[in-house]
Structures are given as C-alpha cells and as structure tokens.
C-alpha cells in the first residue's frame, strides 16, 4: 500500500496513492475525499456469504461486536488516484505488515484499511470470552494474506513484545491488535466481584508475539462526559 500520513496527532489522515486497477479495502465511512479517479463500492461485512445468509451474518456481527455492517472497496480508475481516509477517533494511525510470519487479530474499531492482497475473517470467540466481550464481543477480525493494513488507536499506540517467558495482563479497553501467535484469555481484574479496583476486565496474553495497546480508553471518556449530556427522556 502506497500511503502518506498527513496532519498532526491526534487528528491525522492517511492519503492513499493508487494506480489504475489498484484496490484497497476500507472501514465504512472512513473516506474524507478523493480526486475523482476512484470508485467506491460498499458491500456487506458478511465473511464471504451472500444473499439472506450474508445479510444475517453481517447484521449479527454488527449487533454483537459493534463492527460495521458494511465494508468499502476503493478502486482506482486511472493512474494518479488519491484517496484520503481517517478513523472516527482522535489518535494515531499505524501500519501493520501482513505476511507468512505476521497475522493479526483486531479489537473492535481498530481496522481502517488494507491492501486487496490481504483479507480477513470474522471469527467467533470462545463462549467465555464472548460473554465478557471487551475484545470484539462475540467476533474478532483475524487477518490473512499479505500486504499492509492500517489501524487506528485512541491516543498513542505502543507495542508490547512477549518473548514467551513473561505473561502480560492488559485492560481490554486498551488492546488494539495482537499477533495471532499469541494466546489470550479475558479475565476479571480483581476483587470479589471483579470490579473493586475499577479495572474491570483484562486480557491475559501468553506466548511469543506483539500486542499493540492504545494509551487512552474510549469507554472511560464516554463515562466522563455522560453526566454532562442533555437528558433526552420526555417529560
């Protein structure tokens, strides 16, 4: 993927440079502008299924995981095409490499764009993990293929490397992406009911690989501003 990151953190954009016939897959609603040499086509985030089954599959993931019901394919109609995209959250944009040694699992909302030579599947988590939901709910995005993928974070994005000798426990609202070589479990942080320290649920990672974490918590921001929002209930 030929791209430039433009603008300043916390509000950068990614400017994609495409030649005729080049394609990129985008998070629905990520486009800011293009130079008239790009066509956009939306399709259901249905994991390859079509018809009613595909619609129900996409709808189910949208409801249970918060993933977009649609995903967008951008195709360059001539050389010199430019397409600017941005995530909805303030923070950084990071490129991740996909190849035979590096595939990734993504938290809800992390995906921004990827090469057409790469792919993904929405995989169901184990029942215990799904019930505790903080890392993509019932489904997470798992990558395949080769190329470049752009992900976004709220705040900054920091790598944590596991060498197999030390486990890491990360608040699941801070987890953005992790290598598929890692195993993980979603656990209660501490306390009789699990929330006495205010930490809630955590991801316990084991094995060898990299985890990317975001330095800010969207849920904490929402809880901070919620008391100041107007009450929409009718009198």
UniProtKB/TrEMBL annotation:
Gene3D superfamilies: Mitochondrial biogenesis AIM24
Lineage: superkingdom: Bacteria
Database matches in InterPro entries: AIM24, AIM24_sf, Trp_RNA-bd_attenuator-like_dom
Pfam family, one: AIM24
NCBIfam families named among the record's database cross-references: TIGR00266 family protein (TIGR00266)
Name of the molecule in the record: TIGR00266 family protein
Organism from which the protein derives: Lacticaseibacillus jixianensis
């Amino acid at each position: 993927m030929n791209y430039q990151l433009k603008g300043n953190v916390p509000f950068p954009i990614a400017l994609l440079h495409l030649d005729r016939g080049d394609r990129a897959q985008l998070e629905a609603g990520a486009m800011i502008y293009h130079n008239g040499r790009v066509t956009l086509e939306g399709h259901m985030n249905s994991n390859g299924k079509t018809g009613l089954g595909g619609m129900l599959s996409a709808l189910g993931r949208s409801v249970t995981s918060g993933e977009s019901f649609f995903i967008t394919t951008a195709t360059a109609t001539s050389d010199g095409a430019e397409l600017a995209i941005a995530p909805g959250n303030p923070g950084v944009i990071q490129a991740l490499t996909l190849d035979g040694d590096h595939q990734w699992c993504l938290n809800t909302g992390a995906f921004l764009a990827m090469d057409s030579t790469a792919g993904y599947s929405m995989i169901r988590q184990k029942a215990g993990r799904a019930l505790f939901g903080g890392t993509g709910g019932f489904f997470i995005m798992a990558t395949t293929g080769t190329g470049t993928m752009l992900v976004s974070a709220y705040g900054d994005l920091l790598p944590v490397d596991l060498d197999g000798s030390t486990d890491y426990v990360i608040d699941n609202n801070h987890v953005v992406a992790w290598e598929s070589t890692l195993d993980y479990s979603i656990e209660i942080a501490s306390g009789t009911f699990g929330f006495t320290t205010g930490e809630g649920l955590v991801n316990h990672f084991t094995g060898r690989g990299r985890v990317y974490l975001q330095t800010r918590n969207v849920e904490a921001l929402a809880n901070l501003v919620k008391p100041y929002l107007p009450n929409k209930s009718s009198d």
